Amino acid sequence: MTVWTGDVVGGGTDSNIFMTLYGINGSTEEMQLDKKKARFEREQNDTFIMEILDIAPFTKMRIRIDGLGSRPEWFLERILLKNMNTGDLTMFYYGDWLSQRKGKKTLVCEMCAVIDEEEMMEWTSYTVAVKTSDILGAGTDANVFIIIFGENGDSGTLALKQSANWNKFERNNMDTFNFPDMLSLGHLCKLRVWHDNKGIFPGWHLSYVDVKDNSRDETFHFQCDCWLSKSEGDGQTVRDFACANNKIHDELEETTYEIVIETGNGGETRENVWLILEGRKNRSKEFLVENSSRQRAFRKGTTDTFEFDSIYLGDIASLCVGHLAREDRFIPKRELVWHVKTITITEMEYGNVYFFNCDCLIPLKRKRKYFKVFEVTKTTESFASKVQSLVPVKYEVIVTTGYEPGAGTDANVFVTIFGANGDTGKRELKQKMRNLFERGSTDRFFLETLELGELRK
């Protein structure tokens, strides 16, 4: 990673710098860039090694500074990422201040990835319309924030500050906010809304939020109908809402799988090949590919594509591959082998892709009891599939405080739960009229959020 600081007066910084990267295959967590002694000074480029998840090709980068230190501002020129394994280069251009006083007056910026002089994302503007409910005490005096989530990542924190209404978020009012010059998030799937609980009447009952992508001329609806209040409902001031535009389908019963088989240079075959797919929900029937002189498959260095109708298997975990002799073929005494290099399976309804890096010689046999089993190497979950998981659920969080002397606390305690589908955001663990987190005690809390998938941390 090479970072260029601009040649302007006061361009260097002492602030802490944080980076989040987004790519086709996901995003990283926010990472702090190591400052060391003389990094990020005026008219200077600094190069250092970073190890990150393999999410390339990259789509955008978010840089944030904390605005602390004797020089709290920074003029960021550009950033270059070079993959040390492949040599691939990705450039990110900014050329402006990260400052509360200068330039765009922000401490956060987003930069579009540029690969071979082509921008990897499109630019757009968003209009956010917020409807406060028409019930007693629905309005709020608190500061409200949102994060918009879509197929191209998230927007970062957006403060809902300037509305046409001088007094924002009043009962039965509609407030509109504009966010120009943003990188497009594509099709939207989730919205996080929260407030800072400040003001005389901070509790808020939110009816719904509409987010319009002005470039696409498409509006995404988020139905809310709940309290964000420490004194009403379940006491939570952070909520996640699924996009109502995205239809949640019933569980699939049948589907079609596309199977792409790459034959290596270690051996081709004129014989038949059979596969059985093993999913988390079901196992497929046998899929037999019959070779013939008219329709020849599995030549050296070639790729063959087939389609296979099956019951829905769920996430595919493994597959069995056999190399079967045709009944009319004479098999010589020397062992014949077929070199299967890779197999890629795409579930056609949702578009989930499963990669198998086989690179194996499979001997020709007359019976089906001889086969090879391959575990899935890599899975790419489609946006359409992820949307199906975004349904509201309740999680029970059970916290046990230790028995050590002084183990209990009077502090406010917060938790963030991370899963395959995202995270909960920062949630306070709170109950009315209870002394929590005492020595040797067990406390139970319920958090309502959108399904997180497999929990990670």
UniProtKB/TrEMBL annotation:
Stored SUPFAM superfamilies: Lipase/lipooxygenase domain (PLAT/LH2 domain) (SSF49723)
Q: What is the lineage of its organism?
A: Eukaryota, Metazoa, Chordata, Craniata, Vertebrata
**Boundaries of each PLAT domain copy?**
1-112, 124-242, 255-376, 393-457
Protein name (database record): Lipoxygenase homology PLAT domains 1
Q: Which stretches are annotated as coiled coil? A: none
Q: Which domain of life is it from?
A: Eukaryota
Annotated InterPro entries: Inner_ear_hair_cell_LOXHD (IPR052970), PLAT/LH2_dom (IPR001024), PLAT/LH2_dom_sf (IPR036392)
- Per UniProt, what is one Pfam family of this protein? PLAT
